[in-house]
Write a structure and sequence with these properties.
With 571 residues, the chain is mostly beta strands. The protein has no helices and 52 strands.
Length: 571
């Protein structure tokens, strides 16, 4: 799909989808393996959420900025799924969390993520969908989630459940507000099953998060009672109920909760899925580092068939990992305060650590690793370390404060280390680890940093800005302008060309005469002529592309929301 999948709903053999910037799409489903696009609408702004009622779709869409203050309700006629048509729209003050229809009135939970904007409940008259109108706004009935049970509107507000009478849409009345149901944090989402409402409570702080599922008896609205509570994993995206089973979609599994007896709910199993990977590397297999629950795990996948990658193994990591690189069956892990570890993955069932750096280097956080010429280069806070690959013995480095750190990154090519600092590019000779020497420095205020030329020679690429990284021989900084530099002579670096990028970019990956820029989206840039780089394509990822690798015509993307994406480069 061409956009971020924000919401899906299946109805009468059609799948309705809110696809972010791509708008509102409709697919016909003929069987489990057949899905065909039959209609689409480019909504006023990116489509985020929708409600289907009769032959209309009410779509909430926003412009995607921070804070989001230009949201719009689009009303789409879907009577003919092959020819959907937006027939009207209505402006909203800020983010809408939930839509509920009561007769011909649409209740909109306005609940912005940003401070300074009022939480409220809007009631819109949509009896004439061509001319929707605001009936009333009630701040006292604001909440994160809501659902309709008969003629009562249940609203999740902080740690309470509110019950409102909505028979008169011009004057909804608060009937009851339960006592404090949850001892801390909020009710984030609610779902109903008969006389029971199930509520999710997501909580946590730095280094820990958790989720609890509560069941509440609503048969007596004058006295809402808690029946039971069960703890679940952190990172829940959605929930649904079928056959007295409640399904929770988490960041690493599909959890199954037995709710036959709401007073004794229990977790009866889970179907494990892959978590979103933060980093990926390719050795004997594809290795991915992902967060699972409250820790980190390393996964190995068989990608012989890229259309059906298979999980081979996973391995719990005891410490925080900043970076890792792979060579065949060996993984090198850069950690916080634990030095660098060499992990032998030749036996996927029993990975083992075969070497670690000397304890004297553990006091230095290792932020970046580069494998080059049978040596391992590591940034250790403000220093550079060079280690042997087999034993991680110290070979040499530079213990001067020259800027090898978290916010200054580097790459190594043919014994030249290219160091990207906040205000300069440096070329450093590392052919002798015991005698590292600086070759040249190009300062940001130098005329050569912006000197135009049509040189076709070897070049570096940089995104200018104050926060910089280096990936695969490409210099990356964060203010949205791609810069190419001629580095044929390391002693004489100079500017070649630049290109404005529409959004923040975090990594650049080279492929033949193209660059793939990754961040919120993927951008394909043609650099066949370094003097005139051109954007030729864009792909909207589900969340944020943290890491990108290329093998042949396949692009492997570690997306923090969508997990592992495998894309094919078009010819």
């Amino acid at each position: 799909m061409p956009g971020i999948v924000e919401q899906l709903e299946f109805r009468n053999n059609y799948l309705y989808a809110a696809l972010g910037n791509a708008g509102f799409w409709i697919f016909k489903v003929t069987d489990a393996e057949s899905l065909s696009l039959v209609g689409q609408v480019d909504t006023t702004n990116p489509a985020r959420h929708f409600l289907l009622a009769d032959n209309l779709a009410y779509v909430v869409n926003d412009f995607g900025g921070e804070p989001r203050t230009n949201e719009v309700l689009s009303i789409v006629d879907v009577q003919n799924p092959s020819n959907p048509e937006q027939i009207s729209s209505f402006p909203l003050p800020t983010q809408a969390k939930r839509l509920v229809m009561v007769n011909n009135y649409l209740y909109v939970a306005i609940y912005p993520y940003y401070s300074g904007y009022e939480n409220t409940l809007w009631v819109l008259d949509v009896s004439d969908p061509l001319q929707p109108g605001l009936v009333t706004a009630i701040p006292e009935l604001a909440g994160q989630d809501m659902l309709l049970a008969e003629d009562r509107l249940f609203i999740a507000e902080d740690a309470h459940l509110m019950v409102a009478d909505v028979q008169n849409p011009t004057n909804p009345l608060l009937l009851n507000q339960s006592p404090l149901l949850i001892d801390y944090a909020n009710i984030n989402a609610i779902i109903q099953n008969g006389d029971t409402i199930f509520a999710l409570n997501i909580f946590g702080d730095i280094g820990y998060c958790g989720t609890r599922l509560f069941s509440f008896d609503i048969s007596n609205l004058d006295e809402i009672q808690q029946l039971d509570v069960v703890e679940t994993d952190c990172g829940i995206y959605d929930m649904t109920i079928a056959n007295n089973l409640l399904f929770l979609a988490t960041d690493h599994a599909l959890e199954i909760i037995d709710i036959h007896d709401p007073s004794k709910i229990s977790n009866i199993g889970e179907l494990e899925t892959l978590p979103p990977f933060q980093q990926i590397q390719i050795g004997d297999h594809l290795f991915g580092l992902g967060r699972s629950g409250n820790g980190y795990e390393l996964f190995s996948l068989d990608i012989a068939n890229p259309e059906n990658p298979k999980l081979l193994s996973k391995f719990g990591v005891e410490y925080l990992v900043n970076d890792f690189v792979a060579q065949d069956s060996r993984l090198y892990l850069a950690t916080y305060w634990q030095g660098i570890a060499l992990l032998d993955m030749s036996n996927l069932d029993r990975p083992r650590i075969t070497a670690v750096t000397d304890p004297q280097y553990h006091a230095e956080n290792s932020y970046q690793l580069v494998l080059e010429d049978e040596r391992l280069f590591a940034s250790l806070n403000g220093h550079l370390g060079i280690f042997s690959l087999e034993t991680l013995d110290w070979l040499g480095g530079d213990w001067e404060e020259i800027g090898y750190g978290r916010y200054n990154t580097f790459s190594v090519d043919e014994n030249i280390l290219w160091l990207l600092k906040e205000d300069s590019i440096e070329a450093i000779d590392v052919s002798d680890p015991q005698n590292i020497t600086q070759i040249s420095t190009l300062d940001a205020d130098s005329p050569k940093f912006n000197q135009d030329t049509n040189s076709q020679a070897k070049y570096l690429n940089q995104l200018t800005g104050s926060y910089c990284r280096y990936e695969n021989d490409i210099m990356v900084c964060m203010d949205g302008e791609l810069k190419l530099f001629n580095i044929t002579d390391p002693a004489n670096i100079f500017f070649v060309s630049s290109l404005v990028i529409p959004e923040e970019i975090d990594q650049i990956t080279e492929h033949d005469d193209f660059l793939i820029l990754s961040g919120e989206d993927l951008w394909l840039v043609d650099i066949a002529n370094p003097g005139q780089p051109q954007i030729i394509d864009q792909f909207e990822t589900p969340g944020y592309a943290d890491n990108v690798l290329i093998m042949g015509d396949l692009i492997y993307v570690a997306d923090r929301t969508g997990g592992l994406l495998i894309l094919r480069l078009a010819e």
